[in-house]
Amino acid sequence: MKHRPEGIPAAQLSDEDLTREVDQLHMTRHDAFLHGTRDAFDTHTARMLSLEYEYLRRFAAVIGPDPRRTRAGSRQAAEAGRVSS
Predict the structure, then answer these.
(1) CB 52: neighbour CB atoms within 10 A?
(2) Backbone angles phi, psi at 13, to 5 degrees
(3) Residue 84 exposure: Cα atoms within 13 Å on the Cβ side
(4) DSSP element (H, E) containing 38
(5) How many other C-beta atoms lie within 10 A of the C-beta of residue 8?
(6) Are 15 and 51 in contact (CB under 8 A)?
(7) N or C terminus: fewer CB in 10 A for the chain?
(8) Is 10 exposed, middle or buried, given 0-12, 13-18 or 19+ CB atoms closer than 10 A?
């Protein structure tokens, strides 16, 4: 098997493997940032972006911003809280 320090290309991963890889990278991000070398952090960042862009490409139809995380949604929630009080 060929050694791939950058990992299997994101486009070649199954949906299940892609999801698992994204989850794992998100769990290790803070440690790579605080305790990794510059090269390790750069490699982590490149891999994370590659996987995230592939995830967005594949699952664009089922993901999107939570309305509460947008300005319009926050305003609407604030208005609803004032009206119901």
Answers:
(1) 15
(2) -80, 145
(3) 6
(4) helix 38-59
(5) 12
(6) no
(7) N
(8) buried
